[in-house]
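Hey,

Quick one before I head out. I ran the complex with biotin overnight. Inputs first:
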Amino acid sequence: MTLKEVDSTNTFLKNILSNSKPVPDGTVIMAERQFAGRGQRNNTWHAEPGKNLTFSILLRPSFLSASQQFYLTCAVSMGVYDALYPLLRDSLKIKWPNDIYFDDSKLGGMLIENILQGSQIKHSVIGIGLNVNQEVFAPDAVNATSIKKILQKDYELKNILAEICNHIEGYYLHLKAGRLEFVRNMYLSRLYWLNEVRQFKSNGHIFEGTIINVKENGLLVVKQQNGEQEYNLKEIEFLNK
Ligand code: BTN
């Protein structure tokens, strides 16, 4: 379903779910314009209307427990990655936990909101924002890029959407068949800054370290002079030179 305008496709999907209307698995809600798009860490998500992909997918991964949520992040990130790979090749990376990067610039991101029931995932609302044909970004979005900025060509949003959904389905089926570690390993192999000595910031402290793993629970493992440390999303920042 395509909406001309909505606050946020994630919020819209969550609302129809809580109104207990039956929503089929795999429902995709796309918006031409979001006026209250949400990003990670309580950020807002800005995208020029009509030029970008902003959509949400509903899945019911009842075969995953709440403690396995990170595998869904891997599957969705890899789905987006594989859909874009034929266009963007090896400069494409996944920045932990789930940003899509081209070299050192952000091309897109996702906001996965899981609704739990006991220890199982009842619904997963997977919101994806991808910069496609936008050429000018707000001055505070310093590292934002788009496919148009990279390839100097306009792309049909619906075609890219279809590719992304197909690839996500493929990875979702891997998860369903129990191939969780295969999916996490694919994700790891595409990770931005994996095995590179880089600068990070945590607790106001700047240090050099190397990302060596992302654990089953989604924690980032960074090797430093004084050993290995694990971080969750709000605990570490990547410092680009
Ligand atoms: C991020 O990188 O911070 C995540 C951005 C996620 C944006 C998408 S756009 C479609 C869906 N609806 C929202 O309100 N957010 C997600």
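The two ends are 42 Å apart (CA to CA).

Talk tomorrow,
K.
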